[in-house]
TrEMBL record:
Coiled coil: none annotated. It comes from Promicromonospora iranensis. One of its GO terms (molecular function) is phenylacetyl-CoA 1,2-epoxidase activity. Gene3D superfamilies: 1.20.1260.10. Residues 314-334 have a biased composition (Low complexity). This is Ring-1,2-phenylacetyl-CoA epoxidase subunit PaaA. PANTHER family: 1,2-PHENYLACETYL-COA EPOXIDASE, SUBUNIT A, PHENYLACETIC ACID DEGRADATION PROTEIN PAA. It holds the Pfam family PaaA_PaaC. InterPro entries: Aromatic_CoA_ox/epox, Ferritin-like, Ferritin-like_SF, PaaA, PaaA_PaaC. Its EC number is 1.14.13.149. Residues 313-334 are annotated as: Disordered. It is an enzyme of class 1 (oxidoreductase).
């Protein structure tokens, strides 16, 4: 019998070198490729937080579906909130390719062991907030997420491509809603301004702490997980938003906001970083409510998960009593 040579096992150093070469070529790392544990942990952390943000992010706007002022507005809002659910699901799927299950991640969210974006811990107090979230929150999300389409981990980057297309639609619908209100009554214009005043600073916080207080940025950039720093993206967002605010006719609530000719960018004030850390630690205005709501939905859905598992195990395969294809109008016999 011919002797078949065993394929030579690559050493840890060789695997590491191969991984580094992929990163340096700006190629994608795929789920079955070898990757350092710390890279995997960073991705699970970021992708899970991102997925949780999309799912928790359904709540502030979802609260207005039943109170939308017209059928058209209701249909738009319903579609947007459903899109956010879809984004959460793509991202949980991307995280699952790293060896964690959606169940584990959801349990970490509801037990407070994983985070979600600070922005969703602020209340939505008026219908104008639906427009402001579309304009500013989805706008900030786009600034942050377009570069993530080129992130080094394949499934995450590919999920982001579709998500970004949908977020662009979300931003436009928000801006259009605010434009419509700004063409309305004085009271409606005041509602828009009041909403922008409340959401401006929390939107800037979405980009994370300043670079010199961001423990993860350097490592994540070296791995190509992040391609820009928090401050770079925050600056991009401010520069993009100022002309939009002008066209809308609202004031951004920052007395330090001014165009800097030399830098070719806007100077602007800093958000209240103590407030940011307080919200991240769970003490924001709506943290407890958001997590409790998510936990209730998860608990209420237990029977669906159990039924799906039972069906997958074969218990639901008996269709002899299934009458769904019975088209007769007559009385049914037992
Ligand atoms: N909120 O070292 P860094 C959306 C944490 S989706 C809460 O700078 P990193 C769509 C951070 O996790 C919005 N925590 O961290 C939508 C870390 O803690 P850890 C979500 C925050 O990862 C619209 C610590 O602080 N988007 O809006 C926040 O390098 C409308 C130190 O920070 C994403 O998740 C924060 N804002 O950079 C849905 C995008 N910022 O984990 C519905 C992907 C920081 O060490 C309606 N994520 N922290 O315990 C990212 O780009 C990054 O993770 C950053 C943070 C930039 C958020």
């Amino acid at each position: 019998m011919p002797v078949v040579a065993e394929p030579e096992q690559e050493s840890e150093a060789q695997l590491e070198a191969r991984f580094e070469a992929v990163i340096n070529r700006k190629d994608r790392v795929e789920p079955r490729d070898w990757m350092p544990d710390a890279y995997r942990r960073t991705l699970v952390r970021q992708v899970a937080q991102h997925a949780h943000s999309e799912i928790i992010g359904m709540q502030p706007e979802g609260a207005w579906i039943g109170r939308a002022p017209s059928l058209r507005r209701k249909a738009i809002l319903l579609a947007k909130v459903q899109d956010e659910a879809g984004h959460g699901l793509y991202l949980y799927s991307a995280a699952e390719t790293l060896g964690v299950s959606r169940q584990e991640l959801t349990e970490m969210l509801i037990s407070g062991r994983q985070k979600y974006s600070s922005i969703f811990n602020y209340p939505t107090l008026s219908y104008a907030d639906v427009g402001t979230i579309g304009w500013l929150v989805d706008g900030a999300a786009i600034c942050n997420q377009v570069p993530l389409c080129r992130t080094s981990f394949g499934p995450y980057g590919r999920a982001m491509i579709r998500i970004c297309k949908e977020e662009s639609f979300h931003q436009r619908q928000g801006y259009e809603l605010l434009m419509t209100m700004m063409r309305g009554t004085d009271e409606q214009r005041a509602m828009v301004q009041e909403s922008v005043d409340r959401f401006w600073w929390p939107s800037l916080m979405m980009f994370g702490p300043p670079d010199d207080e961001s423990p993860n940025t350097a490592r994540s950039m070296a791995w190509g997980v992040k391609t820009h720093t928090n401050d770079e993206l925050r600056q991009r967002f401010v520069d993009m938003t100022v002309p939009q605010a002008k066209a809308l006719g609202v004031t951004l609530p920052d007395p330090e906001l001014v165009w800097n000719e030399e830098r070719g960018a806007h100077d602007f004030g800093q958000p209240d970083w103590d407030e940011f850390w307080d919200v991240v630690k769970g003490n924001g205005p709506c943290n407890a409510q958001r997590v409790a709501h998510r936990k209730k939905a998860w608990d209420d859905g237990a029977w669906v998960r159990e039924a799906a598992l039972a069906f997958a195990a074969g218990d639901g395969s008996d269709t002899s009593s299934d009458t769904s294809s019975d088209t007769s109008d007559g009385p049914r016999t037992a």
